[in-house]
Amino acid sequence: MGYRLIDTAQVYRNEDMVGAAVADLIADGTVRRQDLFITTKIAPNKQGAGKAYDSVLASRAALQVNVIDLVLVHWPGAAKIKPDSPENARLRRETWLELERAVLDGLVRYIGVSNYTAAHVRELLSYCTIRPAALQMELHPAYQPADVLDMCKTAGIFVQAYSSLGEGHLLDEKAWPMPVVQEAASKRGATRAQVLLAWARHRGWGTVPKSTRDERLAENLASGRIDLTEEEVVGINALACDFKFCWNPNVVR
């Protein structure tokens, strides 16, 4: 269909399957490695000195690539550590230093974070030598945390949205009417999902919409051909109500 970004993670437990599929596609000439962008993420139980670097090596082997394009710290907290424990901050720092080492050793092209709050990003910027290339986070019309977005813009951190459709809830017109979204879709003969993805693109964010259905995959990709007016973008911006559908990293110290 034209997709060239693969987004996986250690906790998804499918890196080996992704690696095998990519190897097959490259072997039969369907794609070239240089045309793919592969992202994976450090699991919460792999954080800290002596763990994070080794987990990058394991991911690299499972994915069957010489260099991983982007590795993210999946969560600001560590496994089996209470959210309010200062140990989380120590392990975040150790993990980042291990990722910087992986970049210097040529194992990874870019490093970044996922689910970090503005406080977590500020902390990271205070000690990093290699700045985060990206922050992947929940983003959709109902949840647009200005503090995080403003910090990323100032620091030059690329924002990548997940749950752009609110885990599907924002496609329910009765539960989430959002007239500006519905009107924009009707005007173009598009779907609500396409308008939501187009809005994220207009905001300058990347998106990683998930689907197992071919028709939805094609529909999502086609959203790249939809251009919204400035008035429509502003109207959708105004839907922000600090409502999250996913986990809350604000509880992690």
Automatic annotation (TrEMBL):
The keyword Transmembrane does not apply. The record marks K41 as: Lowers pKa of active site Tyr. SUPFAM superfamilies: NAD(P)-linked oxidoreductase. InterPro entries: AKR, Aldo/ket_reductase_CS, NAD(P)_OxRdtase_dom_sf, NADP_OxRdtase_dom. The active site is at Y12. Residues 2-238 form the NADP-dependent oxidoreductase domain. Keywords: NADP, Oxidoreductase. Gene3D superfamilies: NADP-dependent oxidoreductase domain. Substrate binds at H74. The keyword Translocase does not apply. GO terms for molecular function: oxidoreductase activity, acting on the CH-OH group of donors, NAD or NADP as acceptor. Belongs to the aldo/keto reductase family. PANTHER family: 2,5-DIKETO-D-GLUCONIC ACID REDUCTASE (PTHR43827), NADP-DEPENDENT OXIDOREDUCTASE DOMAIN-CONTAINING PROTEIN (PTHR43827:SF3). This is NADP-dependent oxidoreductase domain-containing protein.
